[in-house]
Fold these 3 entries.
Entry 1:
Amino acid sequence: MSPKIFLAEDDNDDSSMFEEALSEIFPSFQMHRVHDGLECIYALKNFLLPDYIILDLNMPLKNGIDCLKAIATMPDLAEVPVVIYSTNHQMKDIDMAYKLGAAYYLVKPTSQQKLVKVLRRLFLLLKQPGFSRVLKHSFVIRDIQKETSDH
């Protein structure tokens, strides 16, 4: 089955890199991309029911946190995992995303290869049978190559 992935991302380069990384993970997938928070909310309210929602934190018109709040009010999306996707990893944003029910907070890696690695890990976690919300200490997903290479 090819997953239906909804990406709310205003940056064309980040979006292209994301789509290219997905093509290395899934033999086939469907991706719908919107460019801002208003377009995100409109699409999800009116015609899209994806398997996964990925929200850039810093989008124009409505940011990822505002979109997350709106998605929480949409009963049809109650079972769809929502992931915040950002270069920003400030604790206040991570705390807010967790409080509002995001499945994970994915820190944007610096390279295509690292993005493939973290997305592979993310989708393996999301596909686990009986997936439920993770504990806060496991909420942030990032490239940890530097940390593990020091051991």
Note: Helices lie at 12-25, 37-46, 64-71, 91-99, 112-126, 145-149.
Entry 2:
Amino acid sequence: MAETAPWAGSPTVEDHGHYSPFVELDRRAWARLADTIEQPLNQDDVDRLRGIGEHLSLGEVEQIYLPLSRLLSIYVEASAHLRSATNDFLGGTTRRTPFVIGVAGSVAVGKSTTARVLQEMLRRWPSTPRVELVTTDGFLHPNAELRRRGLMERKGFPEAYDRRALLRMVAEVKSGKPEVRAPKYSHLYYDIVPDEEISVRRPDVLIVEGLNVLQPARVRADGTTGLALSDFFDFSIYVDAKPAHIEQWYVDRFMRWRHGAFADPESYFHQYSFLSDDEAVEQATDIWRRINGPNLRRNIQPTRSRARLVMSKDQDHSVSRVLLRKV
């Protein structure tokens, strides 16, 4: 294995001759877990859920996401049992709060598609009919503020987000607040939409998807640390792939958008629709190597080991193995 494994240096129980806090299953072993589970989605569902440039197939959904959704439903059910047992022990009654799942990974790795597929599949399980999805894009500072701070070239880096507002939103959801609102982001305008919000009303499950959702807490000036967003997660997923593959996926997606979303005159990126193929590839590669690549190396990839489950993708976007942290 050429790449350093995310669990390196953390020995626990012995598996297959080496120590790891993760159970590792290759694609075939993971897919076998779906043999007794009914597939709830059809091809129309997959076509609707896949992202631009994603090669999501019905087979991928059945072999990878179906067992993952069942695993998550088991964790949700276990959480409910634990709450009930805790209430019995304390002699009180606390309301069930949403089960929160974080989905992290690089730009263009497919984490948004992963989050959408899981949202759709979890809704089909009896214990989780109400599943909401919030992306951290809505908590980016508005472009005007990013320009004021000199951060437009670091959009997507941790410092480009209103982390306090994001933390407050998830904390309120997890505390059982009846309704929580989040800002709305437009990928067309590449900015926060003024006076528009997303409402989250006591879901069974909340999925929080974003680049930096597994970032550790910041160290304050006095040396103390506050809360991290992931402190409120009941489960976390990191979508992983080799950086060279992700870069190519980003360039491919950029080329598709050039004839799609970028063609809209109102798009922030409309200027790129007039580029030649060679110019577009050069532009996409430059953006990746100046912004997205460094952000992946410095801020996103180091959080991989903090995930409860890691999905590793091959060059064709298919998941080749799953790493699950031992309980």
Note: The helical segments are 27-31, 43-49, 58-90, 111-122, 143-149, 163-174, 243-258, 277-300.
Entry 3:
Amino acid sequence: MTILIVAEHDFIGAAMAQRFADRGCQHISYPLAELPEGKALVSFLSEQQVTQVINSSLVSLPAAQLPGYLQQGPLLSLLTAVEQLQLPYIQLSSSHVFNSAEPRRYKVSDLAEPDTELGQIYRRVESYTRKHVQRYIILRTGALFSERGDNVLTHLLAQFKQGGDISLSLHGHSAPVYMDDLARVVSGLVDQLGCGTDEWGVNVWGEYHYNSSDPTTYYHFAESLLAVMAQHINIEQVNLVGVEAPDNSWQYPLLNCSKILSAFGIKQMPWRSSVVNVVKRYCKEVVDE
């Protein structure tokens, strides 16, 4: 069994590849643009003995590059090859497909009505997936953080390192997900899909939600990070300032995750449980350099 991870060279693809490597699972990883197209891709997947495909490129790319993602060449080629070979396909997506102004947890059955251009792109890719692939899982998630790469956590920790006043939003709640936790979830899906879901007697294909179990504001997320970082650097010059203005980097609608629990037994984890280790690793790899 070989798992193909379609991802950019970033912290998202790296975390998933590391998860499978730690478990001794055969996997290969390529950015979408570097995969062959057409019949060559079908041959490539067959030669590599790929049995499942995970596409995280949609949540890996910077927002400015996402409009180009909808150019149907590489994506259509991938979906066509997956369908031809009848491979299970996991497409990572985002809670941005829902309206961020609604203060509730969205269920899988709720209508996707994005209020942002970014959300509209996610919704269109989801629709494209449903149109071209039968055996798919669309996994929506929230704000992702890691000690590596460019994300909400490394952005905050870099500001802490510089010191001074840091204004952060007290408006709205998000349920951020540590990237290693999301890799755990995806790995759990892969394991169970590999057990022959067609023989379960139930239809497991469709949309699922996963975000952490403890929603918080951007300000209080930063406050928790700062408390841990104080153990590694001098933070006397850091002053967190709470403001009422919303912050787009934190505007992720909350998700109801009951379906993934009932279908796959995957439980939510609190983001707070990862903070000590992730900040420690960041300080070791970045601050101490």
Note: The mean pLDDT is 91.
